[in-house]
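thread from #wetlab-drylab

HS: before we spend reagent money on co-crystallization trials with iron/sulfur cluster, can we at least see a predicted complex? here's what I'd submit
DV: go for it
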Amino acid sequence: MENYKAIAKSTSRYFRRTLMDLLRRQRGLVSPMAAMNVLRQMASKKSGAMGRCVQVNLLLTRRCNLRCSFCCVDKLSGSKNRIKEFEVDFARFKELFAHPLVAINLSYVLMGGEPLLCNDLERIVAFLKSKGRFSRIITNGLLLTGDRLKSLEKAGLSQAIISLYDTNEEYVGNFLPSVKSGVPIYLSKVLLGSDLENRYDELLDGLKVCTAPQCRGLMLSNCMSYGDGEGDVVYDDNPLLMKFYGDVLKKYPEVPVSFAYPVLRRTEGMKKKCSVPWNTVYLDAKGNLGMCCKFQAHPDGKFGNIFSADSEERMANGPAFRRLRTGLLSDRPNIPAECAGCSNLYDDCSLRMLFEKSSARD
Ligand code: SF4
Ligand code: SF4
């Protein structure tokens, strides 16, 4: 049980630190309307309808300077000729922000593609800051220089999250220890089953950049299947996962790490916990909606569009959303088909099960 307790402690330390950093960077300037909305969201009951979202995940661009095998942005980009249609500039951002479903939120995750390719990023960040909102970027960090970080700091960026891949590990490993910035920087790493199997030591060593003084924490997440088969999803019966978590704790004891939930093979009797389709809005430049990290904003508006004439669609309550939410609320033991292979389904009860299984094996 010791390992499980250490994992839970480290994960909660990670989230506490994230929240404190957000508040500290904001220096008291928090929109009362958006803050009140967070409280209302916490008190609200889940239903088939949207309820109150508190976070926008906005695809500033569908372009990226990397090509990761598991990336869905590439798969969703539509034809290459269309990719330029999906750029958010400052004017477009203000149009999106004018929508009530977007304006009510407290936290804005500016992502892509690669958000540093957006020329108006600093203006967007400064605008959000002036409105009392948190802004975070998720980046591969390859375009992050000391100067760019300074200009983002000046604009008021609340946090930068750098995703680690084999392709940027070296750059980030050199860059991060060499910078000083008021912007809290976090690292994230997607665990792939094949890496655990074939490159265990390399994977563990590759995380060492998390010990750089500028790094405030490390988030491990689980690869998701995007409908092309099981891919690299890490299931709870993978004996290497708990071993890996134990080794991360041993090797990087000072770093707050948020550990990824495994995907459960057997889900009978489990209560579904995911609340993403209630609290987060996924959006692209054209106002196309996404349902969650697995169902990102579709370029053809398959999940609805906030500028649609249909009011249900406009407020993220179209048929696809309702089916997904109703499936998550259902008492039936089977999971919504859409959620198969997703690690967000069961929160930390799946980690406890993983621990119990690994103890039984020992
Ligand atoms: S860095 Fe991120 S957005 Fe770019 S290809 Fe990789 S996963 Fe996709
Ligand atoms: S559990 Fe389902 S709704 Fe939640 S993030 Fe995963 S796929 Fe999306």
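DV: The pocket of iron/sulfur cluster (ligand 1) is lined by residues 64, 66-68, 71, 73, 112-114, 140, 163 (CB under 6 Å).
HS: ok that's useful, forwarding to the group
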